[in-house]
Amino acid sequence: MWPFGKDARLRQEFAQAATEAVHRDLPELAVSVSRGTFKLEGASVECDLESWFSQWQKGGPNKHLVLAELTTSLKRATRKPRKVASAVELVSPEAGTIAAFDEVDRVGRLLLEGGEELRFGATACKGFEPSLGVRVYVTEVADHRLGGRKATKVRSTPKTEGELRAQAEAKDAEEAAEAEQEREQRREQALSTTTHEAIVDRIKAAVMPDEDDDADQAKLYELIDDLELLEPTLDHVEAILEGVAESSPMAHFGDPGPLVHYIEQFSGNGYEGALFKVSKSRPTSHFLWMLGRLTADEDDYADEALEIIRGYATHPATHDDLRDRVAEYLPDRT
Predict the structure, then answer these.
(1) Are the CB atoms for 104 and 52 separated by under 8 Å?
(2) Using CA atoms, how far apart are residues 123 and 157, in angstroms rounded to an integer?
(3) What is the pLDDT along the chain (334 residues), one digit of tens a residue?
(4) CATH number of this structure's domain 88-159
(5) Which of 26, 168, 228, 286 suits 1 as a labelling partner, its CA being 20 to 30 A distant?
(6) Taking a C-beta distance cutoff of 8 angstroms, is the pair 138, 96 a contact?
(7) What is the 3-state secondary structure (H, E, C) of the chain?
(8) How is the beta sheet containing 37-40 ordered, strand by strand?
(9) Are 26 and 71 in contact, with CB atoms under 8 Å apart?
């Protein structure tokens, strides 16, 4: 039951004051207080009084402001949403001229050829900036809340919205067909530049000896773009790994770079086996990094990857700089 507790008298005083305030500002609604809840029966609105009582209690000489805020919030809760006028597309555009336009408020009036005046906002103008005296065509209208009609879509050309949609759809279809045709041409061209041998050669050619054996990322992305035009295959993965193996052992192909992003889509489907096969006998910086990624997972791949990394420490083909980094990838490193 409410009011209750040691502040029961104050709560009762607040409930009475709040009820009187709502009766004054919302006389059309029935008010009741039950279990600390203010109910407006005519609007199916409920309000928890406890938080308002706390504010009112602290209000001191400004308690009346808390009550005003309470009634304002209830007014908002009971306010019916404004009905939005439905827009109607015109069968034929109506020609007119911008008779007035406020640059600050971005609203104005159109004078149609038949003499009717329509209100409009700048957002209704599609594809052009409204200015005084410009000839326009109204293609969509709605009822204005102050009476009469308002223009909801205004164009600079005498075409209906249906015609414009059909035109846009036709253009989209044409562009899609052109894009697919271009893609097919690129796919045909890629067939000759994505053979196993071509992939190996392109990766080796991307490595720049004058740049500390960093690979040209633009060339690598071009290669991957070509591969993605085709159906991805494990042969592509094997060719990429061979390209890495035949490049400088300290070549840097990115962290992880486009090559790794592409081949890791075959994770669990042949990638790991292909990597183990080529990396065992061809120690490279990039293979060490790729093997290190596999050791993060606790599975059979992690064990084999770790075994190959350990082998790099004593492998005769391991570059001295690479040998120094092997310990970084071992779990017993300090």
Answers:
(1) no
(2) 17
(3) 455 555 677 777 877 888 888 778 777 767 676 655 666 666 666 777 777 778 877 777 788 888 888 778 877 777 666 665 689 999 999 999 999 999 999 999 999 999 999 999 999 999 999 999 999 999 999 998 888 899 999 999 999 999 999 999 999 999 999 999 998 998 999 999 999 999 999 999 999 998 889 999 999 999 999 999 988 899 999 999 999 999 999 999 988 889 999 998 998 889 999 999 999 999 999 999 999 888 877 777 888 999 999 999 999 999 999 888 888 888 764 3
(4) 2.40.50.140
(5) 26
(6) yes
(7) CCCCCCCHHHHHHHHHHHHHHHHHHCCCCCEEEECCEEEEHHHCEEEEHHHHHHHHHHCHHHHHHHHHHHHHHHHHHHCCCCCCCCCEEEEEEEEEEEEEEECCCCEEEEEECCCCEEEEEHHHECCCCCCCCCEEEEEEEEECCCCCEEEEEEECCCCCHHHHHHHHHHHHHHHHHHHHHHHHHHHHHHHHHCCHHHHHHHHHHHEEHHHCCEECHHHHHHHHHHHHHCCCCHHHHHHHHHHHHHCCCCCECCCCHHHHHHHHHHCCCCHHHHHHHHHCCCCCHHHHHHHHHHCCCCCHHHHHHHHHHHHHCCCCCCCHHHHCCHHHHCCCCC
(8) 31-34, 37-40, 45-48
(9) yes
Whats the size of the chain, residue-wise? Answer: 334
Q: What is the residue type of 209?
A: P
